[in-house]
């Protein structure tokens, strides 16, 4: 029996303590006043009485009733029934706040409830306050509560003659039975009568009509998705204006979940004050008034069901897994039959006259019956997967999830997976798994109705009948006595609430109520407690489970045949017929993909073990192990099909004798599978075995036959299952004596304990590798690592974290000794033992004993393994295929010969035969080679179906960024092997498994050599520098043309002088060292001096340019003048350097040689552009204000606006910032810092005044609050997401009158990051930013700008006050740092080349990881800042970029600005100049950022230059016609700036390059012709031969300033990061990519007959540009081929192209405007000015023809500087004259037969009598000699005969041979006379000698 009501409470309105408009609830009275012992009074009831808040009301509302649910700390539910009515407010109570509230209320619901009766009595401003009667109960009898509270209200309103105290007392003392279908009539003593019925079974929920209402409100699909959401633990929120509906909906949803119980937060009505509960991280089901809908919108992961609107909103980030098919569709159709029976008949011609529609209550039960059936189908057979771990003293039960999923065939099903892992299901197992307990409807359904449900599946009417039967039972459960309904309860009259109430609700007499309660309690004490005898039975298990869908055996239809093959093969193996077995093996391995075959294999092997045939010979052992491995390789970590479980006993049985006393068991060869390192697998196995043994304990010995597979549930015949045994035991337990009970408990405990020891052994067998010296760390085997970190204990968590971290060190080389296999295994086993023993109740003493034993077990096992390993190494190896040798560059040497490896797929889908299709080129079997330049893999695919494709993957050693050891399965025999994963910054990944024959020492040697080559101790050890020296040993330095000292000696003098100048005071300024400079590994000790120290009192002679330079210094000057900077400065007209160093005063700027000795700034070039007015000695002081002494120098000047671009390092603490801070006058004794600040101020002033427009300006026009152009740093730090905008210059804002504007508030990829800034008056006047992140309209800069903008780090310029008299303005921006670039690049690498195949590969996962890397965001910021600077320069203001140390981001921005502003830099020549000037001369630290030497290893790779190239690529994409070079050129530079193949990108500054003697050597005569030192030289050579670097669409517009879009949505991922050519490796080493090192046209076969040469082109294997060249390249190649065939020396492609363009131009002239002919019409709607196209995409865009020349676009005559900028590109190439023209005695075209098997080719031959040699060239204008025949070696010249492939049309007499000591050369002239002429010339040459 239980109390009907625990508490009765009266709650009234009270004013809010803080005087706000809202009131609050106050408890006036509660009964009983002291808490019940078993049930304390729930807190916070007053909140739940008025969930929307307590408010006064201007009119009387009718009374309301609803039931709220509160859950206490023991998760007991309390039902609070609340009846609310309104009473007039007494005048005392009414304050101003109340009036206020009323007014608000009225506005809120105008005419809401007030429309009831306008004639309501009462004064017009009368207010009404709510008052609530509350009943609190643990029972759920809503109607009884409604009636009882209604009765109390009626007595009060109608003034009935009944004592309220009596009624309340009776209510509180009323006792009713709990369950079992009893019925009780109660009366509260007011002439009323109510009948209470209790349900038949307690476990079934009571739903009344709530489920039916829920379906009516939301519809079938919505309710189904809510059902799935609640089951898979998502958050569900109901909205409605009615509280009663909210509680009904929540109740309905819970009723649908039966037999699972919802165990998370459940609040059907949530008060407004507690809305923050909605942001809790745990799942919940909550109801909230619809008035708070707005708050619900903000929640990102909550599923919102609007009951009034009938919608369910699922947020984007939430995925609700649907029910598995076919259950989803079946359930849907049955639900529609129940809810809308007329749907079936709607189309009938003669519909039946009437349909019996079931009542709402009945429909409710039918809907629940559908879901009950659904659960029975889902969980059918669940009892077969229960493991009885203990029976006494309490049952311990575990559920074997994997077996259940496997046998139901739902392994991949997301829904069931989540349900089984959820809390609700865990509760279900512990509650319903118990074998001996009361049963209910669900148990019967699962046990007995499964067959019927399966049979009914396709018969809707039968299904409906079953549903109705179940509904009957559910209805009967709720209403056991349907006839009785004799309620009689008084109700108030109609509209009684509008009558003036006689008086407020009275205060009740506490004493009287308490007395009634005490009376009842006294009565109860005497009565015996009513205990309902529960009827307990054995729970039936039901039929064994079946798959949810019978899988039609399409795949394995002929499985019987396959099983036959498996059986035959095994019997051959055991009979020793190895050849037969070998033939069958491939078929068996294929068959073993099927489940049945794997089971069959396990059974067959099991039979052989039972016949004691477990000791095998070597071949048998190999076969058995391979088959087992094949079985296990497809086992997931859960082992759903019990394959690993079946093989576990076998792997410890099969063995082979290696030598006397040493036996190798099969487990040492099958360890390499994920399943062994999965704790869930071991737990399930353990519990299965324990169950078998516990069952055996209680069975009579006769019955106990051990079934075959452990834990395999279905047992034969009449054997009782473990659950039956357990049920029997539980029934007998109470009858046993105490001693007997103890004895059984002890027996069970020791059974579990012995199993734990057994499993500790088994696990050590399978987890300890055969060769424990190899650190084949378990971390690599998917499981153990995750375990380490996923463990619950915080300590191990942090430990594991730190271990994992330490492997990810910057250098990328992990430390070999760090991993300890034994320790990891011991930890793994201990964790397992802890978990299973605590769950299965092992005593703590036993547990301690186990912990002591485990390390010993592991140690013993390691010792046995050592012997096995030693012996197994002696077995003879297997024959392997031949290794393919890679092709090497000239000068590249092999360091380590091929190590056999398998190249494994690395997560990129191409090439692995993934879902994208294509051949499975990987895994491939081959070898890895290490050369002085590259790491190269060559091999063949292991898949025999792919064919003989050679797979090559390589990258430069210098590009290696991370090397880690891994353990991976070899693709063929599935053995776990040591491997290496090498990741490079050229976006390559070699994931290799070493072949067994590669010993760990060879692998280690490979790593060591790789490390040595990757990080040479000194820069001289890099490939580019060792290359030349290897071939020309000890060559004396050549004197240069002007007979001065050699460049080598010159550079030495230069460095010496610089050192003298610097050397004296290197202590004073130690502070500004560039990082890690001293550890550079410099050759001699004096180089260890502080590299940046500057002597404070330098001799004037070194600083002022003296006219009497020493000869070597003059040399220096002349060589400096040759540098790229100087050439560019002269082009820009920024100053010239005449021989006497006198300067033209008219020029505003001059070239200063102040740094020619690198004394002021090591990282600057020797010649700098500074304002004319500044003396050289002042520069010394200015430089001190800047980091690394990098003071502001001019690097570019706009030809149009004459604005200049300057660059410098960031400011030190003193300097401009100090100068702005210290406004007070300087003191007389001025310190040095002050003087340098003043110098600096003068310097900036000089820059300003050197600009023509501002030279005489008034100085008042300053830019104002450019508040922090805020490039929000997207580092994953707490401040990352929200970027605030500070305004450091607000101080001077008061002086301004101009309006403030916004500049480019750009939202990057949906996050607020961009430059959303307030640019003051001078940048003001901008409208809203254009779409797509385009910069605002160019006219947006007002004329009153500052003369100079200083763009600096926000951090440096904090607290700066601009002085209004200055003409410069600070623009603080927040930029990312180098370390953020590094981190972002790491993530980008992982995104593009993941390293391991993705779990579910989808384009979205790539895009997600790309976004996480934030690489594109950084590019967006760079472009954004650059466009800002371009705008400023274009409008005539100068800009100084002064960020970080001035060599990373500054360089990026400055280079991009020049590229965007000046078309010259968009030519091949100009881009080279730009890179040489801004990146090389201005000291970007290539060696430091690329970690070129050992010293840089710790700093890691930071791709600042690559990021710049990516920006250029983005601009190239948007303006394809503006660039002379092709995108391939950018990729080429991107590859080679890290490859260290050329010397160009080595070292950190010109100073260092001079010191090594690299800088001017390039200018001397070239050494070996094959080794290009400089990347530019190489590009130049290649460009002559092939147009690969040239962009055919190049057609620049004059003086076009580019303004690219920078939004992330406009950026594309550069294909440099993602493309791959497996046929030949990266295409950037042209000699290797082109096939044999001959010109590309030789690949074409001779012979004119058009044969079809079709072949398949695979995107990831072949190089597409070469397999399918673009049309123009194809035509040029074709021309060259035809010329060769005609016997003419082929013309250069560039000349041919220029000729075509010229013809094109002439063709277009006659009609005046000239449209180019259709040869080259681009189909791309290309945009020129990126604003124009977006704004009006009219007819222009679609028909834009590609104009090849820009002369027609501008009629005006170009100025001289522009002419220079647009030098015709043909001149760039034709300026190279043939070098040896002076000594050509005779020349002409001859055909020459190539070496053995080569075709005849036309060549241009030159007979040189002075050098006594016959040289030949590709064609007449070629400068590069292709070969030389030394005439000294010629023995004879004789007539020859035509051979195969010779030119057809030529007379036979035109052939002649030249025989030398080495070989015979076959020649053929064009005709007989010329042949004769050649022979005579050669003969005469020979006779002269």
Q: What features would you describe in this structure?
A:
This protein is of the alpha+beta class and 1889 residues long. It has 57 helices and 46 strands. The strands form 13 sheets. Strands 25-24-23-22-28-27-26 form a seven-stranded antiparallel beta sheet. The protein has a seven-stranded antiparallel beta sheet with strand order 43-42-41-40-46-45-44, covered by helices on one side. Strand 15 and strand 16 form a beta hairpin. It starts with a strand and ends with a helix. The relative contact order is 0.04.
Strand order of the largest sheet: 25-24-23-22-28-27-26
| Radius of gyration from the alpha-carbon trace, in angstroms | 45 Å
Q: What number is the mean pLDDT? A: 75
Number of strands: 46
Helix content: 25-40%
Low-confidence blocks of residues: 93-122, 550-557, 702-718, 775-819, 1030-1051, 1058-1115, 1139-1143, 1215-1233, 1255-1343, 1562-1570, 1636-1650, 1710-1782
**In this structure, how is the largest beta sheet organized?**
7 strands, antiparallel
Termini Cα gap: 132 Å
* Count of separate DSSP helical elements: 57
Q: Which percent band covers the strand fraction?
A: 5-15%
Main structural class: alpha+beta
Query: How would the global form be characterised?
Result: globular
